[in-house]
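[Automated response] Your request has been received and processed.

Submitted sequence:
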Amino acid sequence: MRRRASLVLIALAVFCTALAPLLRWYAYPRLAKIPPNQYQEMVLEAKDAVLLDYTGGMQPKKVDKVTIVQTLKGNVEASREIEASAGRDVVVWDALSHIAGPDGKTVSQIPERYIFDAHTQAPVHAAGEAVDGDPVTREGIEFKWPFFTEPRDYLYFDAQTRTATPVHYVGPRTFRGMDVYYYEQHLPWTKVPLPKKMPIEGIDPATFEQSTGTSLWYRAKMMFWVEPVTGAPVNAEQVVEQEMRGGIAAGAPEGRLTVFAGHVKMREDYSRYTVDLVRSNRAKVLTLHTYAPAGLAAVGLALLGAALWLEARGRRTAAAGAGVSA
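Generated structure:
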């Protein structure tokens, strides 16, 4: 009977020990990925900001608040079409950044289509990849870091400049009780395209720039607090300045007219929700990547030990019985 029990335990030990690396090296890369149908909304605010008053004499003025609503919507149909030729799991996010003034009226809005690998978050280049309708070829990451983010610099794509520059790892931090990595990206003054959606209806940005000789310039300090297991930012802040130069800004001091200047922060309720969501996803990723494989390996070793103990005990009992019979 003990012999049969030890054989069963050995079989279970082999099963658990074999399943552990299979779960870690085969299942994890295929299951830990961004779902193609994900929908996410984020509200950010810049309080006591400076905003250009387009209808009040084209002069910058201080306002109580500027609100930025960012939405990310997974395009499942587009993902499937690209996956057919890419040969891997692909996510297509149709993103929109909607900026509104203190009166709720639209200041500008910039749509994006971001295409990336569902597991690694590396960009995937395909038709439709764009910012504000302009085709782009992204390098680096955007919106999300890879699973198990490393404490090092990454290339991060900026939608305003349409370029990827290093986002620098600064060091570990704690945010709302969660251990995170803190990153900064510094973008110098750069000429950027005018948004196609302007506060004044009927203005074509390209025509406006050519006819008036006015250009838009931008600089920013970007700050990210990233939970390293999921690669998800639990907080993001931006210190942004935009100004017009030349043309209609020629009469302003130094030929510059502030379009926007402010410190953009995640709204408190969205910050709390993001932390709770990331904490939940972190537990799921760790279970798949670490806890379950390690647990199965430990159970396998315990079962093997129990089987060997039963076998040794059975042999000792048999030997003792043979001695008594003799």
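Summary generated for your ticket: The mean pLDDT is 87. Residues 37 and 181 are 27 Å apart (CA to CA).
If you did not submit this request, please reply to this message.
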